[in-house]
Design a protein that fits this description.
Ubiquitin-like (UB roll); alpha/beta; nine-stranded mixed β-sheet; Rossmann fold; 236 residues
Length: 236
């Protein structure tokens, strides 16, 4: 008898909860009156936010589908993540995390893609690419290319140079193009001859070698174990 009583109490509680929820849904009050964007945004426009809201918002304060709202806003260009919560009595609080572009991802065709600070690819308008370095590589390699770019940029800083293109081939060979036009062929990373050592050698000896040659090299081939080769470009 006690078990039956307990079940009735539990089931009764569930029924009351369901009835209360249904009553709230039918209330003419509790409408949604505003969406508050609580995070600073630079790339997402007010019109984009308004259009997304009109597309997805349905129901009242209690019945609006928060998961659907979040998913809709995460489909906007430049939005990496959206968080949405109810704020009593009539507001949705919306926090948008935007992508921060650090590079262009070069593709033969298709929509423009960029690499964010997390090494993730995202699509955005081509106008955003001004001044960004270019990356390329096999599918799924964006995070690795970003990590290498940061290493290469740090190694080249003493020369006052920076990479404007970083390419990883299908055979895992690395190539850089610097802001003065020089192409640096680093080749594949090897335990005995790591990329860091080859680039350090370039930073240490290239300025003197270029001065001696009297020209700006078109290509610096760093794939040798203990040296490098220069293929001359234009006279300086």
């Amino acid at each position: 008898m006690n078990l039956v009583s307990d079940l009735l109490i539990v089931l009764g509680s569930l029924a009351l909860t369901w009835a209360a929820a249904m009553a709230l849904q039918r209330l003419p009050v509790s409408p949604l009156r505003q969406i508050v964007v609580s995070s600073p945004v630079e790339q997402v426009s007010r019109s984009q936010i308004e259009h997304a809201a009109r597309t997805v918002l349905a129901g009242n304060f209690f019945t609006v589908n928060l998961d659907a709202v979040r998913t809709t806003f995460e489909k906007l260009p430049w939005v990496r993540r959206a968080e949405v919560r109810r704020q009593w009595p009539d507001t949705l609080d919306l926090a948008l995390e935007e992508h921060v572009a650090v590079a262009r991802w070069q593709r033969a065709e298709g929509e423009a893609q960029f690499v964010n600070t997390h090494g993730e690819l995202f699509a955005a308008t081509p106008a955003a690419e001004a001044g960004l370095p270019g990356f390329s590589g096999p599918e799924g390699s964006a995070a690795l290319v970003l990590a290498r770019y940061r290493e290469f940029a740090q190694a080249l800083a003493p020369l006052g140079r920076r990479p404007v293109l970083v390419a990883l081939s299908a055979r895992q060979a690395w190539e850089l193009k610097l802001d003065d036009g020089v192409v640096v062929e680093l080749g594949r990373d090897q335990a005995k001859h790591p990329l860091a050592d080859r680039l350090a050698r370039f930073a240490a000896y290239y300025p003197a070698a270029r001065q001696k040659a009297g020209s700006v090299a078109g290509v610096a081939d760093m794939r040798y174990p203990n040296g490098f080769a220069l293929r001359s470009g234009r006279k300086s």
